[in-house]
Amino acid sequence: MQELRLLIVSRHALVCVESDEERRLVARLGAVCRELDLPLFTWSVADGMRRRGQQQPVYDTGDPLKALQHIDASRLAAVYALLDFHPYLAEPRVVRRLREIAQEATRNRVTLVLSGPSLTLPPELRPYAASYRLRLPDEAELRGVIRDTFRDLSRDRRLQFRLDGEGIHAIVSHLRGLTLEQARRVVSRAVLDDGVLDAADLAHVLDAKRERIEQSGVLEYFDVDHDLPELGGLANLKSWLTRFRAGFGPRAKQLGLRPPRGVMLVGVQGCGKSLAAKTIARAWELPLLRLDPGRLMDKYIGESEKNLRRALETAEAVAPVVLWIDEVEKAFAGSTSAESDAGLGRRIFGTFLTWLQEKKETVFVAATANDLSATPPELLRKGRFDEIFFIDLPNEAERRQIFSIHLALRKQDPAAFDLDALARAADGFSGAEIEQAVVAALYGLLAEGEAALTTERLLAELAATVPLSRSRREYVAELRELARERFVPAR
User: Fold this and answer.
1) Contact 260/364 with Cβ under 8 angstroms?
2) Which residue, of 56, 208, 232, 399, has the greatest Cβ tally within 10 A?
């Protein structure tokens, strides 16, 4: 509210707001205008120009050019909210009229607020414009939504409210990341489903939250509480997670310690980096969001950067959260060259680095990387992440544990196998290659109609497999040598 008030008081001619929450924006503008004793007008192509609080629109202002002509002619000190105005920013006469109004706006005390889901100003208007971010609702607004929605629904129904302070806090925490209207619909559905608002309605909220996050097209919501395999080995990483978990508590805040910022997991393909990222979320009991680098890119100029900003804003809105960026080198491909993609990769990378350094919300970044040659060196600099761990091929003890985990996951008794012999035979195998050997052996068992899986069949499967450490020996050796000098071993 203070930021919006400042933009109007400082007489910015154009204020651009990219948002789907029209009603919330207009309500916020109304509050600021009442405080400043300024009239507020809203315009849409359907209704034309209408003064806030009046039913009758201004005559013949449905056309955007005529609406702007009315504003220019009236010379009234006021705020004008032009809703869904983005389609008309490509019309030369509309752009020219906007520019003329903007040139006189300071003297006339006129502020035009342009809103829409996506706004791209033509070059002529950019010198007169400022951007305003209508952030997602905070805790106070969401508490108000719960209260007001339940009260409105209770007027003609007998409903029960069974939430104590802790229950309300849990609902509010899970509503974070939704727009105000989405939160209102979720609460309405939860109440009307059984006539009661209680802790059981968290399931409705979580479903809506997952849907909202995945609507972005860039983020995926992962539920790590169920069916997540145990992470074999990596004792050093697990110890770090145990120690730094305290950074989320009130004692750390009292000592002036910020919550952990993130880790980068570098290593040989198939050695458990993705599983480690999921394990962090489970160990710290935080939601897990995955940023899909391939979905960031858009053919339209400026949209790729907007996709990244939207994803990071959503992650901040649902904080505390773990943001998993898988194969981070792919997210910023081309960041070391301005020629290959007209500098797009560099711009996206710069946006991400700035956010990583300055983010205020508790978003723990778990980034994984396979190809260090494609990873921007700025990302590997100390201070970007709390720690950079190298996940090497598992040693014999870890291979034994990995065999035990994957056999148990597939209804096999690990005690019935010679795990020591299997661990020795799998020297140089990654965790993913060990898992695939178990899966392939079981498929062979089904195909041949054998009664039980044996150590001998598993050994035969291992012997028939060429692991990455042999097929790409030079790559693995180079990665290990580099990691020995720069990174902390995860085991």
Assistant:
1) yes
2) 399
